[in-house]
Structure prediction request, 136 residues.
Amino acid sequence: MTTPSLLTIKLHLRISEHDVHYAGGLVDGARLMALFGDAATELCIRNDGDEGLFRAYQSVEFLAPVHAGDFLEVTAELLGVGRTSRQMRFAVHRIIKPAPTPENDSAADVLDAPELVARAEGTCVVPFEKQRRRAR
Prediction:
């Protein structure tokens, strides 16, 4: 059973050549972890009025390679709120991928269905004294 979300945010971005870490245009998992962190920060700001601190990941899974030129959708869901802890779930889906041809090196395709490339669960902490909006 899936836990219902208290709050959900989405980030959209294009992976650039600057994000490439390995030969063949492959992006490393650390870049995706940074996206989880960005999404967690937005959730904390929207919920508490403070950026909070990432405390721990309970799970992280990298499910498909990500390459330069991919467009990604990062979803973050706030699942639970304690006095200072915030339980979150993350997913990264590829929504557009490059499709270059000899005639058109800038071609790209919108995917019929988003492709899950990574997911995670984690906990952030917002110190009580920094909460500008009290937890629900």
About this structure: The CA atoms of residues 62 and 118 lie 4 Å apart. The mean pLDDT is 92.
